[in-house]
Amino acid sequence: MASNQIFYSGTQIANNIMMPYNIPMSWRAKVLMIICGTVIILFVSVSIFNLSIVNSVSNSLLRENITLLTSIIENALTSPMMEGKVEMVQRIISNIPHNTDIISFKVISSEGKILSASSPQEIGHDAGLELKESITEAQEKGIPFFSFKKVPVFLQVKAIKNEPRCYGCHSPSKKINGFLAIQVDYQKAQTLLKENIKRSALVLFFSLLFIIFLITFVLDRLVNKPIFAILEKMKEVERGDLNIKIDVKGKDEIATLAKGFNGMVEKLKRSIMERERAHSEDLRKAEHLATIGELAAGLAHEIKNPLTGIKGAIEVILEEEKGKNREILSEILNQINRTSDVIQNFLSYARPKEPVFTLTSIQKIIEDSITISKYYALGKNIDIESICPSNIKNVYLDPDQIQEVLVNLLINSIDSIERKGKIEIRACPREDGLEIRIRDNGKGINDEILPFIFKPFFTTKPKGSGLGLSISKRLIENHKGNITIESKEGSGTVVRVFLPYLNERGDIIE
Questions:
Q1: Is 3.40.50.880 the CATH classification of the domain at 354-500?
Q2: 458, 457, 456, 446: which is closest to 485 by C-alpha?
Q3: What pLDDT is recorded for position 89?
């Protein structure tokens, strides 16, 4: 029975340190979410960055191609324009290859009139508001103007500066003679970009699937399987098998966990064995002491009966004795009374009575205890004062046992006062119970002695049994209370007895 209790305590220790079995799955899910989320964010960020670079490079190349094409056409038109050959200029513009991405090419005057165009029907017409705004911006910046339309069309406007060689046809006061406007369709480039985005999305999707599969596989092989193996071993320990040992492989964190588990089981096994041995030894000692106690109690009872008869006989002889033997007989009677008290205290300690809880006035118990104690103070100038609040309520306790405690404590205080002194006993109601405080101005207790005063048979009195405080402590503990003593040699003693509020069954009232 004792072994089962100890083993149960050991397995409870193991259960407390073992995590619930559903945690590994939750841990794996968290790790997967963190890693996959990180990978997705990384992939999406890289893809967006790459697409932005591709888009930027594509636009840059398109601008460079248009600028180059514009420069080529501009160079081709320079000579005819210098010579004023308008028809040749129009013929060159009309012969621009139609299989290119060029939608239209126009030569526009500084006033906004179309001078030449890839569509001859536009010649002589106004260039329109959009082109004029582009021309205005090109004039302000003095650089080629580029513009993306809502439709996939790219527009470039370039100013034709008035150079000295143009002064034959244009006034030297003019800075710009006109503008070249070219519109290019970049639908093909946009289509290629969209296809690139689709391919990148597919690559990203399948890459993510592969990475998730790889992470799951690695976690399962390197983390989950070893952890579940450890959990299975923990279950076996929980079922009572302490001979379990995990094979440790490697030097990673899982191996460290396995080593820690092995060490824990080994320590638990040793602890249980030591506790079993200690418990068996305690049981053996307890049985031995119980046997001795019963024997001693029986022996004390057997001694008490003839001692009572001897006491009665001595009292009869003492009444008739008038001579010199009377003093000797009186001393014999005193020693018999002392021996009888020691035996009675021993029997009270060895066979304590269960308390009988009744609703009692603590004020009356204190007054009765003082009345009894005053007989022990005869011949001394000692003032015993009680302080009890008038509204203190009755409490459930065993009046005989509590009175025995208070009388014993008051007698100890009386013994500590040599000639003249004062003893104060005060009842202090609290929210959780009642405190009875006994204070005296006697000689106090030495610090070296104080830790031993509740030990059975420990006494500093020449005629004491050493059981009074031990019995008092046990009686107070039977009331679920406690007793404490504060003392300093030469400064008196304060004893505090705390009694919690109980009901008629002796249970603490919450």
A1: no
A2: 446
A3: 62
Q: Cite the residue boundaries of each domain of the chain with CATH code 3.30.565.10.
A: 354-500
In this structure, whether the domain defined by 84-189 belongs to CATH 3.30.450.290 is answered with yes
**CATH 3.30.450.290 domain residues, the chain:** 84-189
Structure tokens, 448:
């070296």
Annotate 335-398 with three-state secondary structure.
Answer: HHHHHHHHHHHHHHHHCCCCCCCEEECHHHHHHHHHHHHHHHHCCCEEEEEEECCCCCCCEEEC
Task: Report the amino acid identity of residue 22.
Answer: N
User: What does the block give as tokens for 503?
Assistant: 């009901």
Q: What Cα–Cα distance (Å) separates residue 143 from each residue in 71, 159, 172, 308, 500?
A: 13, 7, 21, 134, 98
The three-point CA angle 392-382-406 to 5° equals 40
Listed in sequence order, the residues at least 6 apart from 310 whose beta carbon sits closer than 8 Å to its beta carbon are 336
Instruction: Give the pLDDT confidence score for residue 20 in this predicted structure.
Output: 40
Looking at residue 47, what is its pLDDT?
73
State pLDDT tens for residues 451-498.
Answer: 888 887 767 776 666 777 888 898 899 899 999 999 988 888 999 999
Q: How far apart are CA 29 and CA 370, in angstroms?
A: 75
Rounded Cα gap, residues 397 and 355, in angstroms = 8
